[in-house]
Amino acid sequence: GAGVSQSPRYKVAKRGQDVALRCDPISGHVSLFWYQQALGQGPEFLTYFQNEAQLDKSGLPSDRFFAERPEGSVSTLKIQRTQQEDSAVYLCASSLERGKQFFGPGTRLTVL
Amino acid sequence: AQRVTQPEKLLSVFKGAPVELKCNYSYSGSPELFWYVQYSRQRLQLLLRHISRESIKGFTADLNKGETSFHLKKPFAQEEDSAMYYCALTLTNFGNEKLTFGTGTRLTIIP
To answer: What is the DSSP letter of A112?
Structure first.
């Protein structure tokens, strides 16, 4: 009966390293979302899956960002060649109803 | 493109006083509006949605299409209301369920 989980909770990367962030949605939730939240800002949309299909990736800031959800459950957000401006909290959410999203605790990424 | 504006980053209110958190949006269509809340050391969670027309924890919000506003109100603030509040909208067209958030208002209830 757990909610959305994310791992790792904290990640420190050196500039130029690749990182992978994992999201385990609530079982049975069809929709899965990734958001980026910079300090002092609201969450900003990155990408959205319905089952395994990535329906919208318009929020991904560059081609260094890539997300997948191959079996329609667990999702991974990958950031290649990390830059300092990638430092943020990355939130995952899952949903069964429009707008009613259940959020994970987030992964705080710090790029040095 | 749609946009959500929360003009107050910080708001302090005395316990027992009324609370109003402002939210304005810009979108030419008919969005759905929500308030999300994040209590200290907890995850972001849905507080209420305009289509439900419900009161949650004493909070209500009315969608005013003429003023494109969705202000959150509570008549008597309680200490446990201290939290970060985000107004958000989603579009109603099929296949697009992403939320667009405002920058948030940190509400502090003074005992």
So the answer is: -
